[in-house]
Design brief:
The chain is of the alpha+beta class. It has one domain (41-377): Aminopeptidase, CATH 3.40.630.190. Helix content is 33%, strand content 23%. The protein has a seven-stranded mixed beta sheet, with helices on both faces. It has a four-stranded mixed beta sheet with strand order 8-5-17-16. A three-stranded antiparallel beta sheet has the order 13-10-18. Helix 2 packs parallel to helix 9 (280-293) and helix 7 (235-243) runs antiparallel to helix 8. The chain is globular. The protein starts with 40 loop residues before the first helix and ends with a strand.
């Protein structure tokens, strides 16, 4: 495992390789409708939300009442990686596909109340809170899932060689955190989750997000049809973009992650460019929408706590947010899946644990999708 790091805190791009290592991995897999779309949107939502806490009594209690939180610490107990006290923070950000209510239309399927997480990112905020590294974990990664207890107190058995996103569908937020901590060896300090319908509404409240596509993107599954050029995406179009896997490149989950990462940077740039403080009504509407869309860990489960947390993130620009995908290889047993490239993944997690930049060697020669440069911020 290499401790070397680049001058910047961040992560480079990924490229392709193959091999087998059954413990934790990710794979690409062209298949039906993927539901990823909320990612670091949670970070943006938190930043917006937090601003609403200054609106006085009614506004405070209204926004506070919107928030949902889960007690991760109580569910997981003490059998967890040690908290690192070096000024950095690790946040697990999930995009959820709840199959009920307004999400039924967006996620497809029946209104059965089930839920999936098809977007997962470990966001590492470096000491000083001026830079961050974001590591996407492909939903199709084959892993060994640990035994875990959910927030209702129900224990779920460990399972070998299952898809990463089965952790959330099996035991919700607590099992997702437990699985990520087992995979990375790093303690997750916080948890943020945003759902489909919330993502769409937040984009619309922002007035859309401007991106440039260098190629035509058409995907009937995600209902997306964009010609190459500059577009201001509506919430529905933005959700289609971050979900598409057949519209560009090789149709893989890894390619879609590249689209998501490019979109997030465009979104962050836009949030920083507009004057959220210029209109009290606009700010309140954004805060109201965001607080309804976000689920947090209990440590962030109030407007005051979320405000303090998000205020600490406001100094991070898209230029100082370095994004990569967890190092993986295509699974020799199934080319539609990926498995963890153990030695390189170890470099990533060791760097973050020590609050250092991710070395370029960690993501050189690993599997990648084919959508790089298709979407850029405008």
């Amino acid at each position: 495992m290499s401790a070397e790091s680049t001058p910047e805190s961040g992560i480079p791009d990924e490229s392709g390789t193959r091999g087998r290592h059954r413990a934790k991995g990710s794979r690409r897999k062209p298949r039906g409708k993927s539901r990823k779309g909320l990612l670091v949107m949670a970070w943006v939502a938190a930043g917006i939300v937090v601003l609403g806490g200054t609106g006085g009594g009614y506004v405070y209690f209204k926004l506070n009442g919107n928030l949902k939180s889960v007690d991760i610490d109580s569910a997981l107990g003490t059998d967890r990686p040690t908290k690192v006290d070096n000024g950095s923070e690790n946040i697990l950000v999930l995009g959820s596909d709840t199959r009920s209510g307004s999400n039924k239309k967006l996620g497809g399927g029946t209104d059965d109340g089930s839920a999936r997480s098809d977007t997962a990112m470990v966001v590492h905020v470096y000491e000083g809170h001026k830079k961050a590294s974001v590591v996407s974990i492909p939903r199709d990664t084959i892993i060994d899932r640990p035994e875990c207890t959910d927030t209702k107190g129900e224990t779920h058995d460990a399972a070998s060689e299952v898809m990463f996103n089965s952790a959330y569908s099996t035991g919700g937020a607590a099992c997702a955190v437990k699985t990520v901590e087992s995979l990375t060896g790093i303690r997750m300090d916080h948890y943020l989750e945003v759902d489909f319908s919330g993502f769409e509404k937040i984009i619309d409240e922002l007035g859309g997000v401007k991106v440039t596509t260098t190629k035509d993107i058409k995907d009937d599954d995600s209902h997306l049809d964009l010609k190459a050029g500059t577009h201001t995406l509506t919430g529905e179009q933005a959700l289609g973009l971050v979900r598409t896997r057949h519209g560009v490149g090789d149709g893989s989950d890894l390619g879609r992650i590249q689209l998501q990462q490019a979109f997030i940077k465009a979104l962050i740039n836009q949030v920083k460019a507009i004057d959220l403080f210029g209109s009290g009504t606009k700010l309140y509407d954004l805060a109201d929408t965001a607080t309804k869309a976000v689920t947090t860990d209990s440590d962030l489960g109030s407007i005051n706590k979320l405000m303090s947390f998000a205020t600490g993130l406001k100094g991070i620009s898209a230029a100082n947010m370095h994004m990569v995908t967890m190092p993986v290889q295509y699974d020799p047993a199934d080319p539609n899946r990926v498995i963890v490239e153990e030695s390189k993944a170890k470099q990533v997690w060791t760097a973050l644990e020590n609050d250092r930049a991710i070395p370029k060697s960690a993501t050189t020669g690993t599997a990648t999708g084919d959508a790089d440069g298709v979407v850029t911020s405008s």
